[in-house]
């Protein structure tokens, strides 16, 4: 392709924000990157970038061209990765993000088991309850839970996950149990990271906004509040099953329980065939369901 070097330089400049950063990424000089982009603009006959002393901005033509060129580069890298992964051992750095409590309890131990099998691999595990931007923040894999939003990312289901609305028996000493979703407005709802609870109603998925006097971005803290009778909480099976079995928690709104709240590995399309990504996700698919099953079966001490 006649413009290939210029396209790669142009995409990296836009993605990283400066000519200097693009030069470092491609292991060439600043002047080389500048010449490649200028030559590309000359060959196309249109300016792609507005340049100032401190910033660069895309022209209208540049915005359209960048969107298509980034897809082109991603497709090329995906094709390369697909070929390399056929015989390749996982290597390099695997960048992974996951929600904090779930990551600490389930993902981090499996990450460590995987690294024991592949000591040549490096891991950067970022635990946060913020929804990260997979592509812009440079992640190879992000673990997400619940119903996924439509996107250009590739997703693979790792295991099932069910959510329960629960409270302690002591909470129901002063209020009656809700029998419909509409009755939640009359209850103290304990809120986690999201203030929308998931339900299935007549075969359709619904998200219902709830409110209450308590909120924290921590599953264990939410569980503790529910056990102490502070209100209703919606929590996944691996938190509540032992306490439901012991009678310390009571499930309500059972017929509306959300059944489509799986655990997913989400990744950029061009990275799905990389050996480190493919083999790590295969490892999670093999081992994570049993870890969750064991957590659900663990008796309360």
TrEMBL record:
PROSITE patterns per the UniProt record, alphabetical: HTH_LYSR (PS50931)
Alphabetical keyword list: DNA-binding, Transcription, Transcription regulation
Pfam families: HTH_1 (PF00126), LysR_substrate (PF03466)
UniProt xrefs under SUPFAM superfamilies: Periplasmic binding protein-like II, Winged helix' DNA-binding domain
DNA-binding found in the keyword field: yes
Annotated ranges, domain HTH lysR-type: 1-59
InterPro entries given in the database record: LysR-type_TF_proteobact-type (IPR058163), LysR_HTH_N (IPR000847), LysR_subst-bd (IPR005119), WH-like_DNA-bd_sf (IPR036388), WH_DNA-bd_sf (IPR036390)
Family membership: Belongs to the LysR transcriptional regulatory family.
PANTHER family registered for this protein in UniProt: HTH-TYPE TRANSCRIPTIONAL REGULATOR (PTHR30537), TRANSCRIPTIONAL REGULATOR-RELATED (PTHR30537:SF10)
Protein's name according to its UniProt entry: LysR family transcriptional regulator
Organism (species): Billgrantia ethanolica
Lineage summary: Bacteria, Pseudomonadati, Pseudomonadota, Gammaproteobacteria, Oceanospirillales
């Amino acid at each position: 392709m006649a413009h290939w070097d210029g396209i790669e330089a142009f995409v990296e400049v836009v993605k990283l924000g400066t000519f200097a950063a693009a030069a470092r990424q491609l292991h060439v000089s600043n002047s080389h990157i500048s010449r490649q982009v200028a030559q590309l603009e000359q060959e196309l006959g249109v300016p792609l970038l507005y340049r100032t002393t401190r910033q660069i901005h895309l022209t209208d033509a540049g915005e359209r061209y960048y969107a298509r060129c980034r897809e082109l580069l991603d497709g090329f890298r995906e094709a390369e990765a697909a070929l390399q992964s056929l015989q390749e051992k996982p290597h390099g750095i695997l960048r992974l993000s996951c929600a904090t409590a779930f990551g600490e309890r389930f993902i981090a131990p499996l990450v460590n088991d995987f690294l024991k099998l592949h000591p040549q691999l490096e891991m950067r595990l970022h635990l946060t309850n913020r929804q990260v931007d997979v592509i812009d923040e440079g992640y190879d894999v992000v673990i997400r839970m619940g119903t996924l939003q439509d996107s250009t990312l590739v997703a693979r289901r790792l295991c099932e996950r069910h959510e329960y609305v629960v409270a302690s028996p002591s909470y129901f000493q002063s209020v009656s149990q809700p029998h419909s979703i509409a009755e939640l407005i009359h209850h103290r709802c304990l809120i986690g990271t999201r203030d929308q609870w998931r339900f299935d109603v007549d075969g359709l998925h619904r998200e219902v906004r709830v409110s209450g006097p308590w909120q924290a971005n921590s599953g264990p803290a939410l569980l503790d509040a529910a056990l102490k009778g502070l209100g209703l909480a919606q929590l996944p099976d691996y938190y509540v099953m032992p306490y439901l079995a012991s009678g310390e928690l009571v499930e309500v709104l059972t017929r509306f329980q959300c059944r489509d709240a799986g655990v997913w590995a989400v990744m950029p399309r061009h990275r799905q065939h990389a050996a480190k990504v493919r083999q790590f996700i295969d490892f999670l698919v093999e081992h994570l369901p049993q870890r969750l099953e064991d957590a659900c079966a663990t008796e309360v001490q």
